[in-house]
Amino acid sequence: MSSKPTDSSGISFTALYTGAVWHRYGLSDDCLATRQGRWLYHLMTPFESASQLAIGGNIRTFLLQRHLIIDELIDQAITSRGITQVLEIACGMSPRGIRLRQRHPGIHMVEADLPDMAGRKALRLLAADRLGSNHQVTPIDILADHGEHQLEHVLDRVFDNRKPVIVVTEGLTSYFSLDVITTFWQRLAAALAQRPGSVYLTESYYRPRPPLLNGSLNALGKLLGAATRSQVSFHFQTDDEARRHFLDCGFHSAVVHDPRDWYDRLAIPESRGEPMVRVIESGVSGHGSS
């Protein structure tokens, strides 16, 4: 398989599974529940149960950890920094846009995904009367280097570019090799630098140190990569490695959030031992911690 996929359309089915997880745990809206997602949820339940017993965590644990921590960091950026523009890339069936608009009616929320998924999401939100001038869905392709779906073009088109923006990619970056996703991060850092005070939030899954677990995870990654026609990658092994990489991409600050630091602050599931997921908060123009 090429290290640079020609598109990322195969990823969409995983959005249905994560959407079903959000709905099952009371985080989503009925308008985003899909029959395919419910089927995938039940199909995955035996694997998830076995994983929980074997390693003290499973995909659902990590999904909930990352999702709720990202939500909290978005809330902090809105309330403490006054950012009023939010772009969620690879939105899939994420309920984040609905929940953010309920908590912060004054924000401008834009959800973005590949054209097919963006169209499906827009139809569901329109049917539920959720869209309007301050809540939109638009197509994007993070690999595009020209045209209307290009990252830079979307940012210019949908936002007031005199103001900062919060950009979120959840459940996206691990489907690309480090080389490919690094190019996206570099372009994003450059685009956000033109909007001082902007914040980027994403997650990363770490390569586990125990050889048996690492081998099992790599096998799972290859299986998922085949199913999604992508190159599933686990990019980093330590917090410092991740932090330095984002700084090298052009962000001015980078904070790596370990779910264990949030157990006493958020109602998130706990892993037995070290969680495999981290949330990375990067900023430009001196905003955010370093």
What does this structure look like?
By secondary structure, the protein is an alpha/beta fold. The chain contains 9 helices and 7 strands, in the order H-H-H-E-H-E-H-E-H-E-H-E-H-H-E-E. It is 45% helix and 13% strand. The longest helix has 23 residues, at 59-81. It is globular, with a radius of gyration of 18 Å. The model is unreliable at 1-11, 219-230 and 286-290 (pLDDT under 50).
Beta-sheet strand percentage?
A: 5-15%
Helix count equals 9
What's the end-to-end separation, in Å?
A: 37 Å
Overall mean pLDDT: 84
The ordered H/E elements are: HHHEHEHEHEHEHHEE
Strand order of the largest sheet: 3-2-1-4-5-7-6
Largest sheet: 7 strands, mixed
From the alpha-carbon coordinates, what is the Rg to the nearest angstrom?
18 Å
Shape: globular
Helix content: 40-55%
Category from helices, strands and their pairing: alpha/beta
Find the count of extended strands (DSSP E, 2+ residues). Answer: 7
- Poorly predicted sequence stretches spanning 5 or more consecutive residues: 1-11, 219-230, 286-290
Task: Provide tags for this entry.
290 residues, alpha/beta, globular, disordered N terminus
